[in-house]
Amino acid sequence: MRDERMERPDLRARDADLGWGDLPAGARNTITDVPGVRVGHTSLRPSSHIRTGVTAILPHGGNLFREKVPAAVAVMNGFGKSVGLMQVQELGELETPLLLTNTFGVAACTEALIRHALVEEPRIGRETSTVNPVVMECNDGYLNDIQALAVRPDDAAAAIQMASEDVVSGAVGAGTGMSCFGLKGGVGTSSRRLRIGDDHFHLGALVLANYGRAGDLRLPDGRRVPAGMGSPERGSVIVVIATDVPLEHRQLRRVAARAGAGIAWTGSFWGHGSGDLALAFSTAERRPHEPLEPILTRRVLAEAELDTLFRAAAETAAEAVMDALVAAEPMTGFRGHHRAALRDVLAAMPS
């Protein structure tokens, strides 16, 4: 049974004065401020012990296998079970939607992406190359019975199908059962408007926040948030960065790495048992699967302009974490485990 209720949360990070940084936000303050990018969720809550789901991120609305986008990955701490990142690093391209889910849902999401690609391009694996599905994960096993293997390929396909410009934050999609700094975590997003020369661009981030020791959370004003007893830094954080600035693979890897600065601002030190990854892609160009010419001409940002993107990556990553925490409602799940909401903790803190 799939629960696809997508009620928009009451609060986002800036509603709670938890915006981060100085660069101006985009119109929605979401990753979909980057033109063409869409996000969809499937949330699974069929019983008290299942709290999980899938989040899909689509770089554009066309055939991604035939029109790839440049991409790169930065690994802050590699305690993770993602699929497809090796080829992204080697070839510098993304050719499927990105799926986020729980650790044991990776296989089901991988199958869904392969089937999705086969529908769009039946020659895959026969007359042309195979496809590289990209799935990233966090362990939601505290609130979700991860051994139930609740995520199925149809759930992932539904998240892709429901992708739109309207992004819901909080305990939805892949974020349904996630925890962050001992509180209820989830999915959050943020964006920045950039001016480079005479042109205007966007950079946006979507975060799956499932990391941090209880009591280590730091707010933008420097306050530390109490959340019970400290515990080892376990879990994971996934940051997906999108931009319409023309960047090549090496530059995208450098931008992705700056997401780590934003995650550190929130109070994380990327502990031994935490899988911390960032993937960045650019929508400025589409790379043909079968080029018509042997030599391609590409526009690329001048290196001296990268600092603007580095700052935007750090700011959006940090604010997206706040966005996830503010939007998430308190939750009780597997074995009666409970996570309080940041909004409730803030209400009880002295001003």
Automatic annotation (TrEMBL):
Q: Which SUPFAM superfamilies match?
A: DmpA/ArgJ-like
* Entry-linked InterPro entries: ArgJ-like_dom_sf, Peptidase_S58_DmpA
Where on the tree of life does the source sit, at the highest rank? Bacteria
One of the Pfam families matching this protein, by short name:
Peptidase_S58
Q: Which family does it belong to?
A: Belongs to the peptidase S58 family.
What is the name listed in the Swiss-Prot or TrEMBL entry for this protein?
Answer: P1 family peptidase
List the taxonomic lineage.
Answer: Bacteria, Pseudomonadati, Pseudomonadota, Alphaproteobacteria, Acetobacterales
